[in-house]
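Late entry, evening session. Most of the bench is empty. Finally got around to the prediction I had been postponing all week. Sequence below, unchanged from the version circulated by S.P.
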Amino acid sequence: MPGRNNSFTYIIVGAGSAGCVLANRLSADPKNRVLLLEAGGRDINPWIHIPVGYFKSMHNPKTDWCYETESDPGLNDRSIQWPRGRVLGGSSSINGLLYIRGQAEDYDHWRQLGNTGWSFEDVLPYFLRSEDQRRGGDAFHATGGPLSVEDIRIRREICDAFIKGAVEIGVPETDDFNGADQEGAGYVQLTARNGRRCSAAVAYLHPVRRKRKNLKVVTHALAQRLLFDGNRATGLAYTVDGVPQEAHASGEVILSAGAIGSPQILQVSGVGAGADLRGADIPVRHELPGVGRNLQDHLQVRLIYRTRLPLTLNDQVRNPLRKMMMGVEYLVRRTGPLSMGASQICVFAKTRPELATPDIQFHIQPLSADKPGDGLHKFSAFTVSVCQLRPESRGRIVPKSSDPAAYPAIHPNYLATATDQETLIGGMRMSRQIAETKALSGYIADEMRPGPSLQTDDDLLTYARDNGVTIYHPVGTCKMGTDPMAVVDARLRVHGIERLRVVDASIMPTLVSGNTNAPAIMIGEKASDMILQDAH
């Protein structure tokens, strides 16, 4: 029989963007005993809280799961790294901080697929509830929420010039990608508070963790398998630093382990596609063919332009005195290059004039490197990252073993459709079009990558296949819906199993048109209301 020490109302698996929201909202009622389990450690590494520190926290096994994909045909059989947060705050503790919600049409499409309650009109109140917009509130923004959203604290001449170049080719300038219309070019806002990262842990967990005796947070806790009584989830077996533990839930078990972790926990517990489970010697408890399917991600292709003048972060980092002054500026004023997120400006644009909404996002960085985490180039350059917003390609997560500690096989299946290929090529050509504008002509010395020798569509597609990498937005592997491949219903309850929900980006039926952290937090907010409503 479970004792009080291991008996809870709610068990939340994963202290990432959605999990931290749930822990806060569900424990607000002192009658609820809430257990929050996180496979990683505490978010005490100082680089987590310095915005530019994602260079240090990604690919660091103390804060990152350090996943790698299987060889992908769409990437000319390359395997690529897939960073995901393994620390309190999850990926919100290691991401690039950009606050982007996506387009209203994304959520209206979810509703059109049969997911009642998920139109933009339905989800906007939860974006508002989460937000503390430092500019103030309006129809699309709110103040007073846990998640601080503020303007970027550094501007660059090369970024200003890129915005002007985008305007030259017909893209409007904007100062808000989360307002009435996403289309435009402008500076981004970040999930930051006074120049420091505002992760989901900082926003939702830390303010209540020590105050609420009914909230227990356990780090270094690796989920082993769900516990069942018939078709009802009753708890979770897990280990803490290798020591077996069990917890039991009188209310619900909630998986918030992300687009890789949540389907994997279901699979090792015997819930999933029978063929996948049997292939990994896992007994089938409940046939649910969509688990691990419907995987979607944003693929990015980077174009690098050398500049004529020393205008980029590459130049500051090369100079020891200027590098030291960057640190001093951040310590004293919380401004300067250390307050940067993954991009300073974005452009949301249409590759074809007949499109209703943007289908391409550009992330512009006033720096260049071979990849994040590597040292910056020893010449002045900036990077334009191109990604298709709504890929048609679908991949899958497949268990390799019944061992919960063994990573699953990740098959992204990038660039599998003609639309995906054509859209990405169109985005690369648009980047070149902007680079050739009058606004940028005096700044750019040459296109270093792909380089002027690559001109045909086949050339550009080959470059994308050889060089494209994730932009860290995997979703969809426990999709919400009513069709046979859906894993959860519109209230995020797992089909065919009682008292079990999935609450994270894996429930997205289709990928949103932009960065995924703000939508994941919204999902946590909305789910917390549904869970509390269903308990009464």
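Two things to note before I forget:
The mean pLDDT is 96.
The chain is about 30% helix and 20% strand.
Will write this up properly tomorrow.
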